[in-house]
Amino acid sequence: MHIVTLDPSKGHELEAGVVVVGSGPAGAAAAFAVAQAGLAPLVIEEGALFEPSRLGQDGFRALSQLYRDLGGSLTSGPAPTPFLQGRAVGGTSVMNGAISWRLPKHVHEEWCRDDPSLEGSLPFDLVETVTDEVETRLNIRPTPPGIAGRNNELLAQGAQNLGLEHRPISRNVRGCEGRGQCIEGCPAGRKLSMDRSYLEAASVLGARVLPETTVLAVEHDGRRARGIIARTRGGHPLRIRAKVVILAASAVQTPVLLLRSGLVRPPTGFGFQAHPGVSVSGFFEAPVEVWRGATQGHEVIGLVHEGIKIEALGFDRAIASTRLLGVGQRLEEAMAQLAHYAFFGAAIRARARGRVSVGLRGKPRVEYSLLEEDLSKMRRAVSVLGQLMLAAGAERVFPGVHGFAAEVRHPVAMQAIERTGRLSPRAYQSVITHMFGTARMGSVRESAVVRPDFRHHDLDRLYVADSSVFPSNTGVNPQTSILALATLCGREVARAQA
Ligand SMILES: Cc1cc2nc3c(=O)[nH]c(=O)nc-3n(C[C@H](O)[C@H](O)[C@H](O)COP(=O)(O)OP(=O)(O)OC[C@H]3O[C@@H](n4cnc5c(N)ncnc54)[C@H](O)[C@@H]3O)c2cc1C
Description:
Blueprint: E1 12-21, H1 25-36, E2 42-44, H2 59-66, H3 105-114, H4 117-121, H5 124-137, E3 140-142, H6 149-162, E4 166-168, E5 170-172, H7 198-204, E6 208-210, E7 214-220, E8 225-231, E9 237-247, H8 253-260, E10 270-283, E11 298-300, E12 308-312, H9 317-321, H10 328-336, E13 341-348, E14 354-358, E15 364-367, H11 372-391, E16 396-398, H12 411-420, E17 431-436, E18 462-464, H13 479-497
Parallel strand pairs: 1-2, 1-9, 2-6, 9-18
Antiparallel strand pairs: 3-5, 4-11, 7-8, 8-9, 10-13, 10-14, 10-16, 10-17, 11-12, 12-13, 14-15
Helix pairs in contact: 1-7, 1-13, 5-13, 6-11, 11-12
Bound molecules: flavin-adenine dinucleotide.
Residues 21-27, 44-47, 84-88, 91-93, 95-99, 183, 214-215, 248-250, 253, 257, 433-434, 466-467, 477-479, 482 line the site of flavin-adenine dinucleotide (FAD).
């Protein structure tokens, strides 16, 4: 990869054709598309570059190395919920589960129903064609049985016994050894995260990456973007004059950059959507060793139409041990039997919409609270997760729902959660990893931030490439859809510059 280094002891002024802010899936795909057109973009990334030899140590080390705010970012609202984001060259793709899903057709149809112009500017056939290219580049294919691991096999068995449709997860890996360390960053370099795929390919075509540099705002004259203002690794000012700026800093950081640049017109920052995730653990008589095998190698797809997407969850020993119940001797006993625990999780297509604004010290403030219908979905998800565990042969299940039995041994008791689980967000331990909608795309200026060609409604030569532009959440893992749409954004930039 072509990494740019600047003298950290002083400020700098640079010139660039196209500047891309953020090097995650959105930034990497947009940069690659721009580089393919010969425009040699400069990608600016707040995080550092991590070679595989520095990755995969343990879950806590990964949180401090790779995750924004050490993994401690929280929404504000009645039930503050952690939202996890990466901060590294490659963005969150470095430490995500590598699960790949195409943009569902019914989601695209919903978008077009709300804004029929998208049918012409973003036709589903085009999204499909670009997604084919993404799948080829990232070697996306189903997890083979040889590296699935027991945790994944148990989910398959549970789903089979309950009659729920299930399948091996398709992932962006090459030569995966099933080390179970995706969310710490693959120490064998087998995940095709952006630093090992799109950014490498873009560099060959002339793209450069400037890491450990924080973009503070977009410079503009009220009519068109002129460049960016940033802070270097050494804390000095950096100003880059550019012909085009593409924001790809994620659905949380991009609206903050827009707002900090004086681009405050609603709905900037409004419309935040997510897939809050819940998980359930189970104790099995035979060892599971949740840290062996593909981190997330099997999924239940039979409830996706309800907005519930179920996956096996692999963790290293450090993170797995934080999920155990009890204190003192009880915790000690559970720790000694850590190898016998399995974990399954569900991502919920929540309908709630929140808001990202600029909070203390310029950081994002994410206001988000679930609707009652989201909580109903969540308790149904917990109930099904527990039933899957029991159907796979778990002795005991730990639903983790406040106000409900801590330990369940019978499916009937697990089913009861679906009716009696509390409809309070504080009753569930959820985590957010998929975010959308804070600079939505649309043809009508009053209700959208960017046009259907990804260009800002009010400012020429400013584009947004990440899932901020998605009109809604998708109900499935978003990375592949983000890659597809960001590729189209990069192509629009290239077309406009031709
Ligand atoms: C633990 C975890 C597991 C996940 N697993 C999956 C999965 O298996 N499959 C899937 O489809 N999705 C998964 N996701 C979600 C997926 O990784 C994200 O949706 C995707 O990475 C978002 O892409 P992005 O480019 O918009 O943002 P990011 O990947 O977050 O990249 C944005 C980048 O911009 C940088 N940046 C932000 N602000 C600035 C600034 N001011 N200046 C400079 N740089 C900045 C950030 O440091 C970051 O590197 C997971 C997420 C998490 C947290």
